[in-house]
Design brief:
Blueprint (H helix, E strand, L loop, with lengths): L4 E5 L3 H12 L3 E5 L3 H20 L7 H5 L2 E3 L3 H5 L4 E4 L5 H14 L5 E4 L7 H4 L8 E6 L8 E6 L5 H13 L3 E5 L8 H17 L5 H16 L4 H7 L4 H18 L8 H14 L5 H32 L1
Helix pairs in contact: 1-2, 10-11
Length: 320
């Protein structure tokens, strides 16, 4: 079968992670950035990241084999020529995306999928005037997609159903976990769920119910323990003997009273300054990048554990 090509536009953290996602799954990847210095540093950074993945047993091939599938390209035309999918990762500026997608619509083959990694801009805001708008969609990842497999697929009103179906199959082949957002909504799914939790955490902090560190502990050592392997609906289904209906009859009144007393967070500067001060006592600003690398390695360890558990489960099924 002919090797397929993925074009990745933008070589920042998200773009480099997407390059890894596709290269480790056997695709040929062409990487481009309008800033030459960003493009120049991309391959060395990718090599380092793939090496880290290898150290946790998350890569099944030599580092050089995977990195060799990625080519840094100086021009946009060279990058997207004959690409089966273009993954755009430029700044969250609608005018910039509109201009880029016009170029992509002109330069790519007619059946290429044109996907944006945007975390907040609906596809309808930058694809409406394109001749090939039916092949455009949002494919919103979680940072970094090489470690967190979720990708949200959301089309504009004019995106063809076949576009979403082909995109879903391609991302699944690349080892991701795609979900389809049935119609456009600000923030898509993940950021709306994350935003609801963050809004309540910030509100509780602002009202003085707990410190930032203790609220982080509630999430890290409480809710996140379950949410790392099951979602909120399955969680409540298992938390009452009779499932969701039983849970609702037991606790629905409690949650209604909580909702009635909620105080939305309006992002005031003084509260955010106080929160930033607490965080800086724990982590100096010049150590944020170092801590981010630590986070990525913890995610690698979690992925390695999940792979091990899944392998053991598969072996059990075979011997049952």
């Amino acid at each position: 079968m002919q090797e397929r090509t993925i074009a990745v536009i933008g070589s920042g953290r998200i773009g480099r992670a997407w390059a890894i996602v596709f290269a480790r799954s056997g695709f040929a990847v062409r990487l481009h950035d309008a800033a030459p210095h960003m493009l120049e540093g991309a391959i060395p950074a990718i090599r380092e990241s793939v090496g880290d993945l290898t150290s946790f047993g998350l890569i099944d091939e030599p580092v050089d084999t995977i990195v060799a599938r990625i080519t840094a390209c100086k021009t946009l035309g060279e990058t997207v020529a004959n690409a089966d999918l273009v993954q755009e990762n430029i700044a969250e500026v609608v005018e910039a995306k509109r201009a880029l997608f016009a170029d992509l619509d002109r330069l790519t083959k007619p059946d290429a999928l044109l996907a944006s990694s945007t975390s907040g801009l609906p596809a309808s805001t930058f694809t409406e005037g394109l001749q090939g708008r039916a092949r455009c969609l949002v494919a919103h990842p979680v940072n970094p997609p090489s470690l967190v497999p979720l990708v949200e697929l959301c089309g504009a009103p004019w995106t063809a159903p076949d576009t979403l179906a082909r995109a879903r199959a391609l991302y699944e082949e690349a080892g991701q976990k795609p979900v389809v957002v049935n119609r456009e909504i600000s923030g898509f799914l993940l950021n709306r769920l994350q935003g609801a939790v963050l809004d309540e955490a910030l509100s509780l902090y602002e009202q003085g119910y707990a410190s930032a560190a203790d609220l982080d502990t509630v999430m890290r050592d409480g809710l996140a323990m379950r949410w790392s392997f099951m979602g909120p609906f399955e969680t409540i289904d298992l938390n009452a003997p009779g499932g969701v209906a039983d849970y609702a009859s037991r606790y629905g009144g409690t949650y209604r009273s909580i909702a009635a007393t909620r105080v939305p967070f309006d992002w005031p500067a003084d509260t955010l300054a106080r929160l930033d001060g607490e965080r800086r006592e724990v982590l100096a600003r010049d150590r944020i990048e170092e801590r981010s690398r630590w986070r990525d390695r913890r995610l690698m360890a979690l992925l390695a554990h999940r792979r091990s558990v899944e392998d053991q489960s598969a072996e059990g099924d075979e011997t049952a």
